[in-house]
Amino acid sequence: MTTTNQALKQWIEEVTALTQPDTVHWCDGSDAEYGSLIKTMVADGTMEELDQKKWPNCYYHRSDPQDVARVEHLTFICSEKEEDAGPNNNWADPEEMKDKLKGLFDGCMKGRTMYVVPYCMGPISSPHSKIGVEVTDSAYVAANMKIMTRMGTQALEKLGDSTDFVKGLHSIGELDPERRYICHFPETREIMSFGSGYGGNALLGKKCHALRIASVQARDEGWMAEHMLILGLTSPEGEKHYVCAAFPSACGKTNLAMIIPPAEYKGWKAECVGDDIAWLRYGEDGRLWAINPEAGFFGVAPGTGAKTNPGALESLKTNSIFTNVAVTDDKQPWWEGLTDEPPAHATDWRGNDWTPASDKPAAHPNSRFTAPAKQCPIASPEMEAAEGVPISAFIFGGRRATTAPLVYQAFDWNHGVYVGAMAASETTAAATGAVGVVRRDPMAMKPFCGYNFGDYFQHWIEMGAKSDKAPKIFHVNWFRKGDDGKFLWPGFGQNMRVLDWILKRCVDAGDAVETPIGYVPADGALNLSGTNVDADTMAKLMDVNPDEWKTELAGEKEYLESYGDDMPKEMWDQYKALAERLQGVKA
Ligand code: SAT
Ligand code: MN
User: Fold this and answer.
1) Is the overall model pTM greater than 0.90, yes or no?
2) What ligand 1 atom has the least distance to the C-alpha of 249?
3) Alpha helices in 466-545 (DSSP H)
4) What is the CATH number of the domain that holds 439?
5) 358 and 272, same structural domain?
6) From the CA of 237, how far away is ligand 2's center (Å)?
């Protein structure tokens, strides 16, 4: 296969001349092609076959032990002007970076096959979907892209003769962490990624295209590209709402996206539209509508079990790829939290013998499953809807042992933008570096916003001003801990109780009281029947502690200052108003 698209043809000729592959394979996205990609990988050891009776069409991949997560310090936004990348990004001059990368890509595919992977982010039928083409020398990447996107002929056909596509050039190189760069050229809508084969570094449709490049395009065109799950909730009375929630990587987005309401919520229905990314624009009705640009889940495996996320478990039973989990002696994937009883023996993610007595986890903490989204038992039929779904609420959150209460509602849109912008979270294994350090992660976009956060907050403010039907904004924290270091809130399905209050607030019901940081549920407004959360625990969960907020406020000020003139005045107004409100709080 090839193409009649001149722009694409010319680009492929250029990258072929540069990288000098032995063979060029245009991916058509068919099941037969997927089968032969897998066959080649099983033959060369890239993939291992799992028990095909218990895990039909499932395969296992062990990555290089030095290539197990996104590398934020090696990720660059190469905008023409440095100030457009902002303090939130590493910046490099586009010309200089391209020169350096050309040196790395020069001849890098000799002896290898180059896969041309056309893909569509968003439903094929949607006018809001975008096309990209990833060129890669990794069959593993091509196979993952088949699960994660609408890939192959259907994407090429949608592209037609248009020049409007994102060009993504990827090579695993030698997987040398010293020769690894993940680079974005927002003005020319290009991505160049060298030296990693893992997740967001290599599956370019996901974070590189659908967030970093798309966020810039969204700003230019008046829409939003956000790191948000999309969840539909229908009450027993048949009232249906969709919410979007932004949490940093590995903070339970996939679990919330597939929430199983607890027994007390009998008759409620949850439906998953997306678990990681939302593209949003206003509809003619003045509401904000979201599509999920992806077609698969790239979920964190550890902690995914029958109790925590049966929906994810059901999704990944067939046609899935497992990366860096452990493998049992009878060729089944295993990870911490999959079963109550660990296997007596397994091969760990590094390929070493493992037993429960081992002092190391069997699966890497950032090990992943790649599963087709349509296999989710609660997949929403609206996943394929061209216009997406209308959003009632935005929920921001992070992982914080202190400070942030279980839930609060922003007073209005601009306050909500401020709340989202000041969101902070303890770091996780999804990126290399220290785990558990609190850092600001505005809208959970810190690693993914392709431009200056100052301009991004401005864009948010402008989006809110466009309609009086914009979503209501909330902040949640499932991860607050007591003095004993244990989580105060049971989490998982019980989060439905918080969602219930949020939905009530969206229709101007649900009792709330005003605090300096926002509206919180009035006494008794959060349905706790059937939980063991007592009044004392609830008080701790909802506490707005003056000392903690004093520290928080100082941190927020420092953060705003670090953006200098780029920080919109509206954000400073919000800061001042918050500081004033907090002054009234007695220790
Ligand atoms: O590696 S990915 O960026 O795709 C996953 C994540 O960090 O959310
Ligand atoms: Mn994510």
Assistant:
1) yes
2) 8
3) 496-506, 535-542
4) 3.90.228.20
5) no
6) 33
